[in-house]
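Entry type: protein chain
Record version: 2
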Amino acid sequence: MKPTVIHIRASNFFGGPERQIINHINASKKFRHLLVTFLEGHSSNELYERAVKAGVYTRLIRARNAFDPTIIMSMRHIFKDQKPHVICSHGYKPSVIALLAKVGLGIPLIIFSRGHTNENFKVPYVSG
């Protein structure tokens, strides 16, 4: 069985980093990949839609808002269910969620800094 890699990206739009993640997943045939992203409230998630269209195995975690603590338990459930060999978090929010959700599971975490964006007003405020 192929080793499993879980990628986590908190983005509701599709730009350069999201394209890079999907291209990497589709080019890397030695591993089984799962992309996890989030849907806050009733908004849409272009990353999720594009990933599914590209044939990427994708899970969507629904959240009431950006600070919904149930996200951590949902992520932990995915980790326990999928038993990944490694977690790749892309950005600060997925990194914090992954760190909390993986406690006691012994799964290695690789954190990718994707830089700053202007996705919404919170990103430049929090990161700058």
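Comment: Residues 70-82 form the longest helix (13 residues).
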